[in-house]
Amino acid sequence: MTAWLLGVLQTLLFVVSAPLLAGWIKRVKCHMQNRAAPALWQPYRDLAKLLRKRVVLAEHASWVFRATPFIVFGATILAAAVVPLVLAQHPAAAVADVIVLVGFLALARFFTALAGMDIGTAFGGMGSSREMMIGALAEPVMLMAVFTLSMTASTTNLSEAVGYTLNGGLVLRPSFVFALLGLMMVAVAETGRIPVDNPATHLELTMVHEAMILEYPGRHLALIEWAAQIKLMVYMVLIANIFLPWGIATELTAQAAALGVTAIGAKLALLGVLLILWETVMAKMRLFRVPQFLGFAFLLSLLGMLTHVVLETGG
Amino acid sequence: MNYLSPLGLAYLALACALASGVLSLGADRYASLLRYGSTILLGAAGLAAVGAGGWSLLHESRHADQLLLGLPWLKWHVRLDPLSGFFFVVVGLLVAAVSLYAPGYLREFAHRQNIHSRAALGVATALFVLGMLLVLLADDAFVFMIAWELMSVSSYFLVAYQHQHAPNRRAAFLYLLMAHVGGLAIMLGFGVLAAFGGGFTFEAMRAANLSTAWASIAFALVFFGFGMKAGMVPVHAWLPEAHPAAPSHISALMSGVMLKVAIYGLVRLTYDLIGDIQWQWGVAVLVLGTASTLLGVLYALMQHDLKRLLAYHSVENIGIILMGLGLSMIFISNGKPVLGVLGLVAALYHTLNHALFKGLLFLGAGAVAHACGENDLNNMGGLIRRMPQTAVFFLVGCLAISGLPPLNGFVSEWLTFQTALQAPALQSGVLRSLIPIAAAVLALSAALAAACFVKVYGVAFLGQPRGRRVGHAHEVDVGMRAAMGLLALLCLAFGVLPTFFLDAINGVPRMLLGITPPSATAGGWLWLTPVSPRVASYSAPLVFAGVVLIGGLVFLLLRVRRKNIRRGYPWDCGFGALNARMQYTATAFSMPIRRVFAPVWDIEEEIEETKHANQPFRPAAIRHQLHVQDKSWPRLYEPIGRLVLAAARRIGLIQTGSIHTYLAYSFFTLLLLLWVVT
């Protein structure tokens, strides 16, 4: 029971700190590009403002449009709930393994894309169509990277996988390196970062995610934005904790938990800087270059899997 | 024998189906006879079939019997065991839902389509259901083939029912042809088994002692035959032609259950009659299943006729079922029967789930066609406001077929993934690396299916109506809604409470392989743990509760401070009012995917631009023509068709038209045969 309670607390921590991570990333990006940076807690202010605002719905909006923010938010929180953040032994990890986690994100994407088509504007349809293409290509890459991991650890349960990496000690598995690279590229594509999509743009012809949610106002928009921040954090925590789990709390003491929080905070801050470095040196791609980008990511994950089969099990 | 038994109920189901057919004979004179009398009897047949199947599945009982029909030396053998019982449930559920749907649908159908003969429709439907049930009961090759042909031929009449349209006649002929080529292969497969077993009964075939080579030949024959009927790539071409041609409730039966009867045949012959599975067979099934999965969904994405699109998705889902079976066969032949059971259970569960959601979607497509007379997605739009309840049910079907949690399609795909992830247990490195690639293809297909159903739902139900008739669509009648609601509810139940149903299915592998399956439900009804809790677990009830709870809680929290919602115009870029033609169409939606996977199809795209005389940069009119074709036609069928024609022409040379020559042929043949015999 205590474990479940801690699990819920951890999820709350996850959800509440996601905007902070977004604020950090935005700050680093501004510094990197020699711009004046907003405060670290600016995303909280934005969310609070949006939550207070009145909702202006498009006249044809159906219930799908109005239900989508709640479904997206719920599914994304569930995805966050099964990822070990501070505690390695996370009871909720048994509720849904990593394949189900991919399913949650797919569910959120499905509804966002539907909402994009609901109003009947050209932008919405354009965004949905592009998002589903990118999503369709990213999902196999993600699962391939995950399969490499779960075949090595012979589990798809995230807590068990983290435990496996921890117990394995600091060894260099070539398959993990490939899987890590593949997963990082997918994370970039799935969270709509440069070079696949640009979260900061509202330029009609290039936007993908922003095009789908163009018609969302007020608290609906707040939920969608918040869900997007959580999703980014889910990917970053996955990368940080599965491949480099050191520092995560394995026992239930205040000391271990404090260390866990510090460790994951440091890892996420570092990953945020890496992401911004990558975003600063890359230019946004044309839409039809994205399949090549994801194809390369798939190749990396496939190599990871083959290395595992050939090198690491001695078949 | 005791008639209060699963077999007795099964007889009742057969009798009801037969009675429904007999009653339909009078439907031309009394129109309501078809709508009420025969559909009610058909519904009773469905319910009895569910009862019989469920009873036999839960009690794991086997009942065999001999009917007083057939040849003097070969009575009809029938048997109801858990495997048949499982498929009885699948068929029965959908037949019951369809008979709930049929009265309302047929009324409008008769109105609109200038119906020819109600009697023909009713009799063919009843015989079709009878044939499917009898195939499942058959315990000798003779009954099996008779029932199989009954099923094929009666469904031919249903496909050809609207024969005033030339494409339907062509589809029906193609269907009949392919069904018979497949049937021939199955018969030859039975021939091999019967020759070694010394009898036509399944009992004798089970006891047959085949060499590996002969077993492989038998397997190849039945795999080809059943694969053809199931719509496996590359012998799927009849399916997207034939299924949309039939009336919608029949399409639901054909796509939802007739394909499953072929899967039944494959499982029965491979696991039960041939036994002794080789790993090469598993690889063949896995590879063709993977190809069907990917190509099925890619072809589906290019369709904008709703029923054709759904038919192509059947190819995809049959592929997923075959992947499960292939994995199961690979594991069994490699001495890992417990993992083999997992694959088999995944395949069976997907069989059941596909019947439910595909039935639901076809019934939904029928409802849409019924309400606005349209099958073309590019003319639909905004139906969610005109048909609110159908829209909800259809959305459930879309979520289920896209493999999204917490619906049923996800559970069976998850089980298939879990089976594939056990590949490290195998010895061979090639298999160990082949299987995860197949799993990645499954992931790709599932994501593409989601894209396809965003397209379907977004274009048909959301947005603005693209035509006047669609704008005036009306909700369908209670019976049709009830049928869709029932199936939608079952989709949700089978997704949220999978442990109960998986426990029931376990009787099938216990019978076929004689092993108690791994404790997929050992952790209680909440937890689905296919291999062991450490390896993987999924708790569908908690996930469902989680989504509802979090979404609902946030909704309530925000509702407290809710201010009135204002409605305004959507953003139109300042260019003036939006109209329905500015929306993305189905063709536009799938364009990025068409471009990425271009080599898969034969695409003919033609853009014609007419320019203003004095304004060279402003086109006056643009004509865009797009034709996307299935590659299997030019690559496979047309060459074979040409070959057959050429061969026929050669053989035709011996036909002189003179009776004397023919008598001479007979005489010499007789002599030759006498020489052979002596």
Fold and architecture overview:
The complex is a heterodimer of chains A (315) and B (678). Chain A is an all-alpha fold. Chain A has helices at residues 2-32, 42-52, 63-81, 98-118, 122-153, 158-168, 174-190, 209-212, 218-243, 254-281, 290-312; one strand at 56-58. Chain A is globular and about 55 Å long. Chain A has one domain (2-312). In chain B, the strands form two sheets. Chain B has a two-stranded antiparallel sheet. A two-stranded antiparallel sheet of chain B has the order 4-5. The model of chain B has no long low-confidence stretch (mean pLDDT 90). With 678 residues, chain B is mainly alpha-helical. Chain B has 26 helices and five strands. In chain B, helix 12 (306-333) runs parallel beside helix 16. Strand 1 (56-58) of chain A pairs parallel with strand 3 of chain B, so a sheet runs across the interface. Chain B: Residues 138-426 form the NADH:quinone oxidoreductase/Mrp antiporter transmembrane domain. Chain B: This is Hydrogenase 4 subunit B. Chain B: Keywords: Cell membrane, Membrane, Oxidoreductase, Transmembrane, Transmembrane helix.
